[in-house]
Amino acid sequence: MTALPAVSKKKLGLVIDLDTCVGCHACAVSCKEWNAGGIAGPLTDEKPYGDDPAGVWFNRVHSYEIEALDAQPAMTLHFPRSCLHCETPACVTVCPTGASYKRAEDGIVLVDEDKCIGCKLCSWACPYGAREYSPVEGVMKKCTLCVDRIYNENIPEASRQPACVQACPTRARHFGDLGDENSAVSKLVAERGGVALMPELGYAPVNRYLPPRARRAGAATPASPPAENLETKELPSLLRWLDRALSR
Amino acid sequence: MHPAFSVIFFTTLSGAGYGLWFWTMVAIPLLDDQARHSGLALLVPLALGFVLVAVGLSSSVLHLGKPLRAWRAFSQWRSSWLSREGVLAMTTFVPLAYFAAASFSRVPFSNGLGGVAALWLAVGSIATVLCTAMIYASLRPIPAWSHRLVPAVYLVFALHTGALIALTIGLRTFAIGNEGAALLILLTSMLAWRLKRRYWQDIDRGVLPVTRNSALGLPADREIKQFERPHTEANYLTKEMGFVLARKHSRRLRLIAVLLFALVPALCALPLWFVPMAHPTPLLALACASALLGTFVERWLFFAEAKHVVMTYY
Amino acid sequence: MAPMSEPSLDLQKPVGDELKQTTCYMCACRCGINVHLRDGKIRYIEGNPAHPVNRGVLCAKGSAGIMQHYSPARLRKPMLRTGERGANEFREIEWDEALTLAATWLGETRARDPDRLAFFTGRDQSQALTGWWAQQYGTINYAAHGGFCSVNMAAGGLYTLGGSFWEFGEPDWEHTRYLMLWGVAEDHDSNPIKLGLGHLKGSGAKIVAVNPVRTGYGAIADEWVGIRPGTDGLFAFALIHELLKADRIDLDYLVRYTNAHWLVVQNPGGADDGLFARDADGQALCAVRGDATASPHPRPLSPGERGDEILLPLGEGARRADEGNAVATNLIPANTPDISPRIVGDVTLPDGRRAVPVFHLVAERYLDPQYAPDAVSDRCGIPADTIRRIAREIAAAAFDSDVNLPVAWTDTHGRRHASMRGRPVAMHAMRGISAHSNGFHTCRALHLLQLLLGAVDAPGSFRYQPPFPRPIPPANRPGKSRGADGKLDAPPLGFIHGPEDLLVDAQGQPRRLDHAYSWSYPLAVHGMLHTVIRNAWAGDPNTIDVLFLFMANMSWNSAMNTTETMRWLTDKDEHGEYRIPKIIYSDAYASEMTAYADLVLPDTTYLERFDAISLLDRPISDADCASDAIRHPVLSAPEQAAGRDVRGFQSVLLDLGARLKLPAMTEADGTPKYRDYADYIVRHERAPGVGLLAGWRGEDGSQSGKGAPNPAQLEKYIANGGFWREAIPASARYYKMANRDYLEWSAKLGFIAKPEPVVLQLYSETLQKFRLAAQGHGPVQPPAAQRERVATYFDPLPIWYEPFEGAQTTVADFPLSAVTQRPPFMYHAWGSQNAWLRQITARNYLYLHPSLAEKQGVLDGDWVHVDSHHGRITVQAKLVANMQPDTVWTWNAIGKRRGAWKLSKNSPESKQGFLLNHLISDITPRGDYANADPVTGQAAWFDLRVRLSKAEAQDGSSPQFAPLAGADPSDAPLRYGAMFRKSK
Ligand SMILES: Nc1nc2c(c(=O)[nH]1)N[C@H]1C(S)=C(S)[C@@H](COP(=O)(O)OP(=O)(O)OC[C@H]3O[C@@H](n4cnc5c(=O)[nH]c(N)nc54)[C@H](O)[C@@H]3O)O[C@H]1N2
Ligand SMILES: Nc1nc2c(c(=O)[nH]1)N[C@H]1C(S)=C(S)[C@@H](COP(=O)(O)OP(=O)(O)OC[C@H]3O[C@@H](n4cnc5c(=O)[nH]c(N)nc54)[C@H](O)[C@@H]3O)O[C@H]1N2
Ligand code: SF4
Ligand code: SF4
Ligand code: SF4
Ligand code: SF4
Ligand code: SF4
Ligand SMILES: [Mo]
């Protein structure tokens, strides 16, 4: 049903640490890999070996450059994007068929591909660029929060996480219940000042991004002069090491 | 936004169809008795309207990834404007069916039931057009669509093109005469032009509801540039939302649109008013064709000029 | 709303029906993977959480393994060339024909002269087999790809520390407070570094990236030092200068673990000049106070103790050694424990020669004002204040921290230490340092900096990974001569200890085809793959009969001078015969190089064969554990054989060896000794008890490191997730170069011959021996023309010089540096055939700084000509400010030759993509030497100097080469995974 369920207590989502993300695309590819064969698969690729390859990805990694400030040079920011599993997402309410829905139980936003008519309206309604239409399949697809992993008892408990979280080599991605303020992810968000993206649009995203920490380049001018000023032009400056009692 | 021809086609034609139906229903009280009693007279505009609506609807269904499942779109009227539009579109077929049956069985339109049906169709047509508009107007990520004038624009264009068709196929002769027709055309042309002008002025200010910084959750005082896109080649999002129309093209196209949907019809209307004419149909047909074409261009621009917030950070 | 309306999802579907654990080979990092199979197809590849390398994480390439395995570019069968070489026209043949042909060619060549076979391998990790095979065959002309990769790192490290950066050492991720990354983009240790960086982000350590470009690891660094390429040595010297000036150095560490106090003979012009003063037993000597032979306080050190506080009287005599008044000094063996050796001052040896301690030379050289921050700042492009600040910061991090591990340990003198003192400044460096013609010395400069801080294998610093450290230099020398059985006396690659080890003829000319171990590149310990094709074509020093290549895309992205390389490969002599008569090549995919082979031996993919990731080769150990691993076929062979017939190259090599009747590969009755590579892995012994794998040795599998072959060894590996690891005892994890427990453990496992300490070499006597030879001393001397070069570049202490390409061109002509970086999601050329990875980057751009672009009138997206002294490319530019303004860069190996890799001929990779390689020459601008480091022969990819000009808009990059023959791929959509959704 595209009407939104009552806000669930459990709000499963991702927390992505922009201070740690090196932009390696591991999350994007592992997502593609898991979901290609998962409940939302295939993630069809058009012209896979041709002139303009294009396929369905649930997670895409952007890179930006943040202009230099006086105190620090230009910064590079890597920014992975996937569905934020919003609390009040228009992508669900605009859907004419009920294919797009938000799970009452845990807040995961999904597409029921058997109902989807491929009208693309939900992709227009999503400001986060999280919906992926496949012209070949004729239906809309999106991040499933790996719902077929996180509850899957055939997977060892420690690995019951989204594929992107599992793969991330810097461990910049965290998964958990953002509705529970005592969860590890909620604490992380509180500690690091995690932000919601574009809150002004009113979608109330669940995922949080941890902003890059201020870079610690240190002051360019020395706080104190070098400890010792030596006359280096002459050999005798070495003499201070002459009678140093060393222990070997 | 990517201007999809099927959707442009759909909104233009179905809009005109609903407009035609609306005017036809409005005309019923104005008809002389004979016409009012002969259902056949109304059958032509109703049928033409049906063709327009049906062609429009089916083109929009063909635009779907899964056309065979289109019926599912009726289910979510409680939240979805698209669903509402579908449902309303279907309900308008009820009075239509009544009129069709009535005219074949020569039941006069003017009876009570006819009145209910007429009201139903008139209101239903307007409501359907407004639903179509609301599909776009409800999309906050596309400010050019969620603009407050969008429902009015959709409505006025439906009425404008609907009126022109109605007048061309002869509704004028029953009721309002050439002068009335001229007045109506001038009025709707003018309204369409004023609305559009206002709308364009607004969207040219280009205020997006969000900044790139907000999209990235960063403080507003850092300047952020694109370094690398996630994929070097185009993907669904860049194709769908990343359509960019050069400013100079958009200027020219706007001019052409206004010329076609407002100026040409208005110019056609003037002689109607001043010059007594027994057969104004060619002029009206010209006005009508021009307005439809103009609306088509206007609709194309409505898509092509609309920016999705996704593009602030893509 | 009612959850009733939600569809019911099958959330309990097992991932696959089979789980196989093996080792990734989408790159050389070698992570452990769990391969889930469903109905015989790969359903999902994930990191193995138990694996020591990646601990469960997996990079983009690893996750895209599915598409690599099912790539349409896979070779299907052996192929014999039918058209002209390079046209890519082949006929598929059966293995029997292919092997017979190869054995005939190789047999004839061996009969004529084994050196007429040039056997070079690329991106493999089976040098333990290939090097051994070459030795059995008897050719000296063997090497792997290290010479064009990072031999500067390997040699710089092994000749200084007995270990090295590369993937043979690692920062102490757990304890470091300050990490400097020098010229690192991805590294071979991709996932471990990413895991480590993620950890440091949590621990609050400061990360400094020294790199002209700020992406990837640099993006998350706390500080980015946008250095000008090729100047890191200067920067390091300036840091050393500051540390010395401020006396912020760890002298105790230096005298305990390095040769800082060893006496160096000062006898200009003499045959012993610059050599260590030694006693009759050859022990290096040091100077101690005149009245002491050993310290009066032979007691164990307590944690954090600075040492003996008794100040020795200022040695008047030492100060005036030149006046022959050095009586206050006693000479004793430098390795004597519990002494307080002198580290500066002149000393007169008993025979009257002068000598000074190594540290004296170090201090003298780097205190020189030419290395002051203000003096190097302009050239490096780093503000002098920044250099001073960083020097202060690293000193503070190293000396003012409280990182001390409460772990008792025993040094090689048997002294107990209550704890392990931390020096939590770690460094890691890679090709930004090594891919320059001054890279060897720059690498040594970094090691010197680390040693002055006491930051090698101390808690928080750079740490050795077993089997390192090893003796300096490692004992094994390269093979030089053949015995009666045609076998080489040692494997062709080894370590040079002095001029007498070189492979030169009586005239001092190179013996090897690649000129490694010649006077031009004496310490080319990994060979020089980048010179092989030119020299084979030119017959320099000799012509060859067969060029046998494995897994190296030598006609394209691993070539310098691509255009000429393609010509050399196809050039014919006056008789119409190819100048390089026969080319055999093994690849798994339709790369640019397969087109140039006469005979193609198709390899399997990494999921279909046995491989040994051996400690004898490039180990995957970490600083706390020794590990090795295997790959094994995880897919059903018959199913994979549908429509293709490929064989693992290692097995093919053993088969060829048996066909050639090489004794080591043949039984007495002439039958093959090894069934296949798996059999070899298990049964082959390099030395008694030492084989390719260290785990589960001994007949019952109870031994580690050394032990008799265990027939069930591979099963043990497979049952253990494909790897073996043995933890280093807790007391042995730091100070490994002098830690008794470690060295004994290392010897027990067979990594070193004897548990002897490894004394770290600030000053390299090995280098000095070459310099002496160049000065006319010793039995083996360079030809006259080479003397100055050898004398200049064999400085026993690190030096800096302008990289050759810059030195031999002018800044006016070529004002910019041009470098490449590895994209994290591509492995060289392999990635682009991958349907998923190529969607991330199907074309590359040249990145320019906006200030440079403005000067040139170039706008974002414009096309530009880029010219070097060697060639021109025309490519599309993008403007970004996160880089050093006098540098341009692009991603490596994205550009493809049209028709290669089974991509469409107008794919963005071939139409718009490009290589910088078209600009890189294989020889210096002057044309006298390879474009390489003069010590190690390392290819100097990043010395490239260019100029830029705006070009007309183009629809594709240039140069373009004739498309390789072959049909374009089908444009049918790829719906991988659809079958799993249907299947139950
Ligand atoms: N401009 C520039 N050029 C560079 C560099 C640079 O930084 N800048 N880096 C240099 C360095 S360090 C290196 S190491 C080289 C790397 O360059 P190469 O060693 O040439 O690396 P690849 O392009 O990956 O080519 C290796 C070949 O191995 C094949 N292959 C892949 N898997 C298998 C397999 O399982 N079996 C077999 N038999 N073959 C297989 C591939 O198809 C490919 O043809 O590039 C060098 N070139
Ligand atoms: N994903 C991925 N991983 C790989 C590979 C791959 O192709 N893809 N290849 C593997 C191979 S064969 C190798 S050799 C390693 C190489 O691993 P890296 O050494 O990390 O590889 P490069 O990309 O060559 O990185 C060189 C870095 O040095 C910088 N640089 C260039 N010149 C200078 C300089 O003068 N000074 C300093 N300080 N920096 C400089 C460049 O900007 C770049 O960031 O990576 C291995 N890992
Ligand atoms: S991110 Fe987009 S697709 Fe996901 S819930 Fe929010 S609006 Fe919907
Ligand atoms: S594309 Fe599918 S999921 Fe999206 S709004 Fe249309 S029917 Fe709903
Ligand atoms: S949660 Fe799962 S579906 Fe969503 S981005 Fe991560 S891997 Fe992809
Ligand atoms: S895998 Fe982790 S580090 Fe890599 S791009 Fe994704 S979030 Fe960033
Ligand atoms: S770093 Fe990536 S490609 Fe390399 S071995 Fe590990 S998972 Fe495989
Ligand atoms: Mo390399």
From TrEMBL, chain A:
Keyword NADP listed: no
Any GO MF annotation of the entry: metal ion binding
Gene3D superfamilies: 3.30.70.20
Domain 4Fe-4S ferredoxin-type per the UniProt entry, residue ranges: 12-42, 73-105, 107-136
Protein name: 4Fe-4S ferredoxin-type domain-containing protein
Keyword set, alphabetical order: 4Fe-4S, Iron, Iron-sulfur, Metal-binding
Transmembrane region(s): none
One protein family per Pfam: Fer4_4
InterPro entries per UniProt: 4Fe4S_Fe-S-bd, 4Fe4S_Fe_S_CS, ET_IronSulfur_Cluster-Binding
Automatic annotation (TrEMBL), chain B:
Keyword Ligase assigned: no
Keywords from the UniProt entry: Membrane, Transmembrane, Transmembrane helix
A single cellular component GO annotation: plasma membrane
An MF annotation (GO) of this entry: dimethyl sulfoxide reductase activity
Transmembrane segments: 7-28, 40-65, 86-105, 117-137, 149-169, 175-195, 255-275, 281-302
Coiled-coil positions: none
Annotated InterPro entries: DmsC
GO BP of this protein: anaerobic electron transport chain
Keyword RNA-binding part of the UniProt annotation: no
Matching PANTHER family: ANAEROBIC DIMETHYL SULFOXIDE REDUCTASE CHAIN YNFH (PTHR38095)
Name of the protein this chain belongs to: DMSO reductase
Organism: Arenimonas oryziterrae DSM 21050 = YC6267
